[in-house]
Amino acid sequence: MKKLKLNYLLIGVVTLLLAMALWPSIPWTSKAENRIADIKTRGILRVSTVSGPLTLNRINGRDTGLDYELAQRFADYLGVRLQITIRSGIDKLFDDLDNGSADVLAAGLVYNSDRSKEYNAGPAYYSVSQQMVYRMGAPRPKSLNSVKKNQLTLAPGLAAISELRTLKSQKYPRLSWTIADKQNTTALLRQVVDGSVAYTIADSVAISMFQRIHPQLAVALDVTDEQPVTWFSLRNNDDSLSAAMLDFFNLMNSSGTLARLEEKYLGHVGSFDYVDTRSFLRAVDNVLPDLQPLFEKYAINIDWRLLAAIAYQESHWDSLATSPTGVRGIMMLTRNTAQSLGLSDRLNPEQSISGGARYLQSMMSKVPESVPEDERIWFALAAYNMGYAHMLDARALTVRMKGNPDSWADVKQTLPLLSQKAYYKNTTWGYARGHEAYTYVENIRKYHLSLVGYLLEKDKQKTLRQQLAQHYPVVNPREMFNPVFGSRPLTPSVAGDADEKNRSTELSTLAQALLP
């Protein structure tokens, strides 16, 4: 996946210039009859989106997602309530604009010339490339010229379709694809993983997140260069909504909110380690069930799955783990720390998890109150790893580097400098393995992302088993869900038995038929 790029200065300048150009002719704050006035009169901002970890995801009864948080802030900016409608696919989103049931689409949509002919695009807030994916272990296409008939399946409304038409007319005349009218991109990614679809195309961020729970999904090639992601509204003679969005994103940029949200949702997306992710998911199946009640019991003011991710980074959930420096147990506590917490046996899983959770909470309580609530955990984890004093040194160094000491996005960039003499000689507490603290926190964030998504996937499979049992009570659901790709959801094939593969394909077809 290409590294995400955001030029906040450029976004700010373009936003300001466009707002200045539009403002004299669009007095949306006072004009009684325009789209903003309609929204304010209604008291509701209607936003359509699709479900996903980056758009809108409900975890423990709480809505999260980059687009959701931005949409909520936009509604607050307008002084109205937010009404979210979740659609099954991209094509359904644009139907909402066409029939007047949505004011804005906020769903990680890519800007392209076809969409801009009928819809107004808002400011870009991150960028992606369109990539073709295949299942690891299957033949990898070296170019679009290698794609054979019926191999490439796409979701309706996908932005890459217009680029494919251009490539077909100019470079790859034999290129063909199939549109799966009733499938969205996520469903097609799953089908690539289970082998029922050879290739599909999705954006680089969606693919990177999907790989966290399905590591056997592999990128074959880039179909496009990086493209801006933006919101869309209906194009007509009234540009008051576009002007409001320009002003809103300019405020989000200038206040640093956009940068913080990007760090929260995109800062740990880039790199992917297939072997490490496979090992982690295997441990989730085989080791975590015994430890989960302890993580749930002792997680203090944090998600228990985050505490579990911390423990995995520390010891890979090995209660007997011991390092050369003498730290031991699942949470890898030092003897002094264990004694200060009243622990008698660091190798006892319950004592270790309890002590580690309390020690982390003490680090959380020390983080300066100026640090945003949703970023305090990352500062605390850095302190947990390298010591609170060194974390303070990193904040002070960030200030000297003209950064924001309350922004994790800024502070994490200075952490590796604590191991370089040119920088640590001027700090209060001297040398620290800041590069290790950086890696430590980013790994935990990746494990947490994988764990949340993987457990949600398992819950969906459990629900589907129950649905299949109701529709076909004479068939043992365990037999139906014994696919060739293993016990974990959609993991790579270990055996090559043809009968099992056929049964897996039939199950996938049946499961799709039962989905709404």
Automatic annotation (TrEMBL):
<dbReference type="InterPro" id="IPR008258">
    <property type="entry name" value="Transglycosylase_SLT_dom_1"/>
</dbReference>
<dbReference type="InterPro" id="IPR023346">
    <property type="entry name" value="Lysozyme-like_dom_sf"/>
</dbReference>
<keyword id="KW-0961">Cell wall biogenesis/degradation</keyword>
<keyword id="KW-0998">Cell outer membrane</keyword>
<dbReference type="Pfam" id="PF01464">
    <property type="entry name" value="SLT"/>
</dbReference>
<feature type="domain" description="Solute-binding protein family 3/N-terminal">
    <location>
        <begin position="44"/>
        <end position="269"/>
    </location>
</feature>
<comment type="function">
    <text>Murein-degrading enzyme that degrades murein glycan strands and insoluble, high-molecular weight murein sacculi, with the concomitant formation of a 1,6-anhydromuramoyl product. Lytic transglycosylases (LTs) play an integral role in the metabolism of the peptidoglycan (PG) sacculus. Their lytic action creates space within the PG sacculus to allow for its expansion as well as for the insertion of various structures such as secretion systems and flagella.</text>
</comment>
<feature type="region of interest" description="LT domain">
    <location>
        <begin position="270"/>
        <end position="516"/>
    </location>
</feature>
<keyword id="KW-0456">Lyase</keyword>
<dbReference type="GO" id="GO:0071555">
    <property type="term" value="P:cell wall organization"/>
</dbReference>
<feature type="region of interest" description="Non-LT domain">
    <location>
        <begin position="22"/>
        <end position="269"/>
    </location>
</feature>
<dbReference type="GO" id="GO:0009279">
    <property type="term" value="C:cell outer membrane"/>
</dbReference>
<dbReference type="GO" id="GO:0009253">
    <property type="term" value="P:peptidoglycan catabolic process"/>
</dbReference>
<dbReference type="GO" id="GO:0008933">
    <property type="term" value="F:peptidoglycan lytic transglycosylase activity"/>
</dbReference>
<dbReference type="GO" id="GO:0016998">
    <property type="term" value="P:cell wall macromolecule catabolic process"/>
</dbReference>
<keyword id="KW-0472">Membrane</keyword>
<feature type="active site">
    <location>
        <position position="314"/>
    </location>
</feature>
<keyword id="KW-0732">Signal</keyword>
<comment type="similarity">
    <text>In the N-terminal section; belongs to the bacterial solute-binding protein 3 family.</text>
</comment>
<comment type="similarity">
    <text>In the C-terminal section; belongs to the transglycosylase Slt family.</text>
</comment>
<dbReference type="InterPro" id="IPR001638">
    <property type="entry name" value="Solute-binding_3/MltF_N"/>
</dbReference>
<dbReference type="Pfam" id="PF00497">
    <property type="entry name" value="SBP_bac_3"/>
</dbReference>
<protein>
    <recommendedName>
        <fullName>Membrane-bound lytic murein transglycosylase F</fullName>
        <ecNumber>4.2.2.n1</ecNumber>
    </recommendedName>
</protein>
<dbReference type="InterPro" id="IPR023703">
    <property type="entry name" value="MltF"/>
</dbReference>
